[in-house]
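Listing 4. Sequential folding, example run.
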Amino acid sequence: MAKTHRVEVLLWSIALPGFGQILNGKFLKGLLLIALEFLINIQSNLNSVIISSFYGRINETVIEVNYQWLMFYPCLYMFGIWDAYKDTKGAITPYDAIPFVVGAYFGTIGAIYSSSLLGSVWSGILGILIGIGLGLLIRYYLRMVRIEKKRDAP
């Protein structure tokens, strides 16, 4: 696929889980991800929490949010991005999923500890960004180890 299409799908997936799948022609999967995103968004009160976070009312976000639903969001979000990325890339190399998985994990950790840090939204976003960065480093390291093993193999 063309590189511009990959970037477009990736950006639409970042905007809303499921949009990238629809652009890739995976309509059922895309609609399912959009429906799950809306369900989690409504059940966790995410929109009102985002507004409170933008105004800097962190204590209000902690009270408003439903953490049992919010903890699903980073995983759904990162899965939607990964799945759309995977479908446009074609051949997937080993370790490509690591940044997405670590990003989802750290985003969930950020959501769990958000009452003591920056609030529900900012802690989750910061966790995702840290996780993606750490995941990229882990992926790079594992690829280098794999290359070294191939080079040393008889």
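-- end of first protein; second protein begins --
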Amino acid sequence: MAEDIKKLHEDFRKQNKSCFILGASGATGKELLKEIIKNQIFSKVTIIGRRKLTFEDEAYKDVIQEVVDFENLDDYSSAFQGHDVGFCCLGTTRAKSGEAGFIRVDRDYVLKSAQLARAGGCTHFNLESSKGADKGSNFLYLRIKGEVEAEIEHLDFDRYTIFRPAVLLVDRTESRPAEWIAQRALVPISYIFPTTFSVPLTTVVRAMINNAAIQSGKKVELLDNKVIHALGRVEEPKKK
């Protein structure tokens, strides 16, 4: 399987695709950027965010940074132009930003970014959502995730991939007490049910990269936690 992934990556590189990442300062976006740089499957990589990031590693020297004001995204439409593939890892929490702030970031900012990406020529949009996302849910978090999933589908991308991971196993720099407790509780359970309740962050981002290289032929893809595990467990063999 590793050899198959290597061949897929090699074939994908030859297409000279460009990509952008939304939310590269967050846990998923940061790890995704790291894996993309390591695998070198895109000819151009752009990160779009509210502030410029500092990288000490020379490997990041060619990464393009677009600083935008998410409250006035229409003024920054040029940042979303000229990308083949988009990865959206943008998000916050109700505890950090309040209910209105959470809705604004996880629904409004994400949807507006997707609209600009579509207008700018992006053909494959990848959205990090959540296990249980449902626009009809009584839980705010799951409802907003479901709503934005549905709204982006209406934009009619050539290919639209939704990732619905369960609890992410990751060490965050920011404090998220509820997530920390859930992670600690799920560590022993994950040994018994490894693909059901949780997923390592590295597995999620590898699944994103591997899936991008696969020509699935599907217009809309909904990848649950089990599929993410399967796609992300395989890493391209290290170069000798």
